[in-house]
Design brief:
With 91 residues, the protein is mainly α. 41% of the residues lie in helices and 4% in strands. One of its GO terms (cellular component) is transcription repressor complex.
């Protein structure tokens, strides 16, 4: 069974202003693209995933020469989608 554990300690929080002051590196210092990456022609993840399988971006994800979509790595987007579905089921 899934049990909740309550703490007697006060919650640790961060002020909202801390997020606005966060210094982010410029795009110039981002990780360079990996040139050795070749995306598979058909990924079993895409075929078995109903959410990604129906996506209008599917052709761009599976057949593109780049490994990013909207500025994000494709593998990262797939992992975020999986995590999101797991969390929705967990609710």
């Amino acid at each position: 069974p899934d049990n909740e554990v309550l703490s007697n300690e006060p919650h640790e929080t961060m002020p909202i202003a801390a997020f606005g002051q966060k210094q982010r590196p410029s795009r110039f210092f981002m990780t360079p693209p990996r040139l050795h990456y070749t995306p598979p022609l058909q990924s079993p993840i895409m075929d078995n995933d109903p959410l990604l399988g129906q996506s209008p971006w599917r052709s761009k994800i599976s057949g593109s020469d780049t490994e990013t979509l909207g500025g994000f790595p494709v593998e990262f987007l797939i992992q975020v989608t999986r995590l999101s579905k797991i969390l929705m089921i967990k609710k």
